[in-house]
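Aim 2, interim progress: modelling of the 6-O-phosphono-beta-D-fructofuranose-bound target.
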Amino acid sequence: MSEFLRCDQTPQWPLLKAHFSAQGARLDLRQAFAEDTGRFEHFSQVAPHLFADLSKNLWDPTTEALLLDMGRSCGLEQHRDAMLHGEPINTTEGRAVLHPLLRRPPGQVLPGDLPGVAESLVDVHSTLDAMLSFADRMRADEGITDVVNIGIGGSDLGPHMAVLALDAYRAPGKRFHFVSNADGHELAGVLRLLRPQSTLFLVASKTFTTAETMTNARSCLDWFAQRGGTDVARHFVALTTQVDAAKALGITTTFGFWEWVGGRYSLWSSIGLPLAISIGAAGFRGLLAGGHAMDEHFRTAPLEVNLPVRLGVLDVWYRNFHGFTSRCVAPYHAGLRRWAAYLQQLEMESNGKRVATSGEALVYATSPVVWGEPGTNGQHAFFQMLHQGSDVLPLEIVAVRKPSHALAGHHGQVLANALAQAQALMVGKASDDGHRHFPGNRPSTFLLLESLTPESLGALIALQEHRVFVSGALWGIDSFDQWGVELGKVLARDLLQRLASGDAEGLDASTAGLLNRLRG
Ligand code: F6P
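Predicted structure of the complex, ligand included:
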């Protein structure tokens, strides 16, 4: 494994600090467009299945060149290749990070692939073929009306977001439900809608130990048996790397995947089965093809026109030089209503770290808070703060040029609003009345898809995965572990017992006091 420089160890870091003090902090977008007629051309580009306009961001060509050079000094290209070729870049878990392999066409060997990668690709395709032929059988099976995904985190967010996004492709006559929360209110609400003989339960868990998922899976098995269901092999499927654990629970129909697929990157594996049932094998292959097209772009495009790289270095510029604490995401497509939730895990579980890969504490900030809602809804809720609040909050818009419905008079409004918000944030509106004054000069990125298809969604998701990789690589962190989620899980196990027994021995006074109240 090679050692890479962190961003603050590169010669460009002090240059960027100086550039920020001299110009960056004062950059005015309106003036920048007036002075540079080529600004839109320079900062916009075509990438697989989408067009991106980065010109309404608070940078200039000098900033961008310095950031890209900083990426080179950090060994970004080598780090990217190490991931794609199967090196164990998830160092704290000693694992390779090969989710792009799930999108590679059969037989495509890259020069530099580590031993074993070609064999893994063969396994990927034999599992994919089996999973997709099962998906098409279930899709065509009119006896199954309801598909229930039981999973949480990466075993829920990606498939849930994608099933909603690609609703236009959904198998007619099938309903999809996603149950993630251990809170029985969620599962009970879904079970009320179901009949055992027409329901397919998918128990999705990489580890097959996650408490929420195991609790929900057991309750579903009990519910199924209590209502006379007998054919567990037909009605329950496990999607997991731990096939033996699934069998121990009584679920014998299984599709596996591999430890080198991180949970939040697992949509492309058998965790994608709900999506494959919804949109069919051809659709799922389209999603993989779109993701692969973005992988190839990330792998081969020069950094200057490499969209994940440009977005990733911009993220570092905003976080570490401007000091912006969050990124608001606003998809202008109702199908993308779980987009923000999906990105929250992708970005914040990956890059919400305070130590370098070496374990040394970092002296700079890492992941921003990612948040948002579909754009037109957000406009009537929190966009006030984007336009006139005391903080500058960069916005990332996703718009889709062609709708997948035929209702007149809707989509033009959606597109006009997307455009208007980006314009208003930048141009502002002067007024002597402070309440009516819009300062403008507020940054936004505009990602535009021609239409929301499996291919374009695949490319859009892979774009986000890689941009998170880029900022994580510059920050010198392990973007592929998630130790921060462990402590709460351990304490919850302890407190579950204490809630039953009432034992508050050794607890801090607040936790003990609340425990007593909760026991009633
Ligand atoms: O608790 C965090 C986490 O480990 C995520 O990284 C993961 O996506 C989620 O839990 C679910 O894990 P599993 O798929 O193993 O049930």
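The chain has three domains: 7-73+301-400+415-429+437-478, 100-277, 486-519. The chain has a mean pLDDT of 97.
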